[in-house]
Amino acid sequence: MTLLNATLLLSSLLSFLLVFSPTFTVSTVLFQSFKWESWTQEGGFYNSLHRSIDDLSNSGITHVWLPPSSQSAAPEGYLPGKLYDLNSSKHGSEAELKSLIAALNQKGIKAVADIVINHRSYERKDEQSGLYYFEGGTSDDRLDWDSSSICSHDPNFIGTGNKDTGDGFEGAPDIDHLNPRVQKELSEWMNWIKSEIGFSGWRIDFVKGFSSSITKLYVQNTSPEFAVGEKWDDIKIGGDGKLDPDQEEHRSALKQWIEESGGGVLTAFDFTTKRILQTAVVGELWRLRDSQGKPPGLIGIMPETAVTFVENHDTIRIDPWPFPSDKVLLGYVYILTHPGTPCIFYTHYMEWSLKDSILKLVAIRNKNGISSTSSVLIKAAEADLYLAMIDEKVIMKIGPKLDLGTLVPSDFALAYSGLDFAVWEKQ
Ligand SMILES: *[C@@H]1O[C@H](CO)[C@@H](O)[C@H](O)[C@H]1NC(C)=O
Q1: Closest Cα partner for 163 from 143, 178, 181, 173?
Q2: What is the CA(100)–ligand 1 centre distance, in A?
Q3: What distance in angstroms lies between residue 87's CA and the mean position of ligand 1's atoms?
Q4: What residue ranges carry the coiled-coil annotation (predicted)?
Q5: Domain range for residue 124?
Q6: Residue 355: which CATH number?
Q7: Is 84 near ligand 1, meaning CB less than 6 Å away?
């Protein structure tokens, strides 16, 4: 081949890629960049993550979820008080955070803020009147509230606002989200961390603490590029060899929450999939097919709104939610080949030796164009074998069963395998 021919071929290849690249969407992959103890990171959490950015770029990770960044009564950030004060966080300063997000953005990675607005730490209590006062952390009076911003009927912190529209929180006053000033000033603050600090989206903490219309309001007022809500309900797992009807209710509640509060970019963590998956991988893989032949979690009924995950900073600490640690990779084989938007957990990626395996699976996902809406055909769901075909392009199995019979057609070639799992690609 002459040089001219080679150049022509290359340029036509390039124009082909340019013309067709818009249809070639890379799957959104979320990374939870922290664990519960990350605030103790020597030299600062933001700085530490900043040093890992080269590691995250080219990984296929598109969005990084950061811990709550405001001044907080608890070091992890989940009891925020002065929301505009990003210099008192145990994770690092406002300048370090901005620099981290700018560096992520430069690599094409977006930052997702952890939005904790159900409750808020007060600055002082007037013992005589019993009134509480909050401070926003600015020189003006933004977010400087009093007891009128606290829900009435909060048993621990008596407020004079409206009745709570959701579940109560014990550790700090529940904020009255029906108060127009609360709505306005929290929306402004969220828009500030978007425009000033560089966040693109939201992970909304404890959305059970207020009604779905409240979530809808904040999402509408702030137009995030990505948003996921933490609606974490208990789930009963039946032990009698059958799917428990409660599981259907569990994912239906997620679906209903999305329908009431969504309509746009909003998604929900798929706690149903997480809890069933961690039970299934211990010799009960039959659990991974529902009565309609679909995956049993939110991904089986509304995959475009489901954020799948194996573990997070809370579940790893709270029984009965921790994933069996020796089966974690099987969890990733499932979520990274299945529909939904997968979320990778800090500890698994950074601390356990799973990074290379996770990266191989993300690469297979992207190479085959697996997306949040991909189709799943479940070919086997038995105690020791789960085998499914995704988009007629990828076949995966988890479970120790070795004899697969004719389940994998000969035009599929092994792409990656390990203990109790395998992934094939169509040739
Ligand atoms: C935080 O520190 C930065 C300088 O690093 C400053 O510009 C900003 O105003 C400070 N914010 C607060 C709330 O003190």
Answers
A1: 178
A2: 16
A3: 6
A4: none
A5: 25-373
A6: 3.20.20.80
A7: yes
